[in-house]
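Field: COMPLEX_INPUT
Field: COMPONENT_COUNT = four
Field: RESIDUE_TOTAL = 494
Field: MODE = joint
Values follow.
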Amino acid sequence: MAGALNTPAFSPLYQQIKGLILNSLQQGEWKPSEAIPSEMELAVRFRVSQGTVRKAIDELAADNLLVRRQGKGTFVATHAEQQVQYRFLKLIPDDGDTKREGPAQRRIIDCKRQRATADVARTLALRTGDPVLQVQRVLSFADTPTILEELWLPGGPFKGLTAERLSDYRGPMYALFETEFGVRMVRAEEKIRAVLPDSLQSSLLKVEQSTPLLSVERTAYTYNDTPMELRRGLYLTDTHYYRNELS
Amino acid sequence: MAGALNTPAFSPLYQQIKGLILNSLQQGEWKPSEAIPSEMELAVRFRVSQGTVRKAIDELAADNLLVRRQGKGTFVATHAEQQVQYRFLKLIPDDGDTKREGPAQRRIIDCKRQRATADVARTLALRTGDPVLQVQRVLSFADTPTILEELWLPGGPFKGLTAERLSDYRGPMYALFETEFGVRMVRAEEKIRAVLPDSLQSSLLKVEQSTPLLSVERTAYTYNDTPMELRRGLYLTDTHYYRNELS
DNA sequence: CAGTGGTCTAGACCACACT
DNA sequence: GTGTGGTCTAGACCACTGC
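Field: COMPLEX_OUTPUT
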């Protein structure tokens, strides 16, 4: 064997290798949908055995950062060439048939530069007053407005994002973030509550103000646990439900 | 190496081992909180290498069926000796401090034998009219009623469960199921909606009927994907939120 | 100290994809 | 066939636990 690198604080070799691969992903050495070097190549590069590289890749694949394909190679996960339309959205039609209802209709209501309020700044790890992009849109299924969401993006990484870019783009929003801005969302946290809409919200969703709605506040993170998106959604749960699996 | 057993349809050896261990868990060969045989012993028993047993155990540990403890052994997961009070409940106080608010106060409203309605029977894999146990209770945090839940259990496995057993028992309900009835919940699915309470529900939770609530319908499964519990909860989300992590 | 799980290696062979 | 990931083995050594 060989010490792959200096070992300041102890950690298993495969964890160190995992960290090195993660670095390369962050630096963009391999881009989404591309293949990373084979296990043997990486083993030589890092001076460890193939099995050690394997264990590192196993964990990264379990985290959905890499995708293994037997006989072909290991690829950087991507939102762009994906069958599922939505990465994190867990709203399912009551009959469970997502194919019948087809893709959502999207309507951008607003997309403007703002200065971050205190709470937006806090969750995006910015300072109050830093430039942010604010987007508001409605998603409809079968011509029924179902989701009203408002999202904030840090101004720096998303410089140049406009309402046109958003509405012209076919495919998931996270795929656009990836291809156009090099920002890949890796994981997210959601806080869910039941709320009643205010008058503006109820008119945009075309429901009574007495209609209870799911309030879903999502913070999405890129590599390194860096928050890159705050999204506040109101979901109409008359014909859909939020599905969760626990284990 | 050696074929551990006949191999009717092909699958990796470690998957077969995983299945054999799962069987032993179901049959109760090793009970919750007990240690299973060491990796070496299992390797001898199944006539495979230690590494193969290891991979099987790794997956079972990832599924929360087993718990590894270095230097001590591998143990059957249990709800009984657990720090966390709740296995599947993801309702978090707004300030995030679960210790401050302490354990919930529990009040059993009702516990009676019933005949399964059509929809209860369907999710519990019973026939309509089969005996089921119906329990209704309220959980309060800091003297504020927060959760109203109704749950149905199949009558067979839970024969002998009474309101007294439930209210006398200290600790998580799933721990009682485990120790008294040998039923261990392994995973669950939830369907979440926003709703308004009816008049009975609002009075039990001591809220207005106009207060939106989270409706959480949970189906919990034991080994083998056998449904063992249907739980319908109404959560008050004024001072708590439902937390979910996506990846 | 002995026994457990945890890491790491080196090598063999299998399953799959492309050419 | 060649190259990829996937499985399996055997053996060495490390880290932790408890006697």
